[in-house]
Write a structure and sequence with these properties.
72 residues, alpha+beta, 3-stranded antiparallel sheet, 4 helices
Amino acid sequence: MMTDAHEGIRGALLTPIQTAEYLTLSISTLARMRIAGNGPTFIRLSPQKIGYRQTDLDKFLEDRVRTSTSQS
């Protein structure tokens, strides 16, 4: 039987497809960002399976808020 804590963790993980949709990026752009190390943090669940936490995606977006195009 799964505890509420485990259900919360599992419910918070998004697939790469869901993540790309959430960030309004293509799946290939998200994959390139993952390879380059400049995308949102992710969890490698197995050699072929990647998961993203909603909180990490929100932080990724928040870290990119700018008030001017001249800001890096």
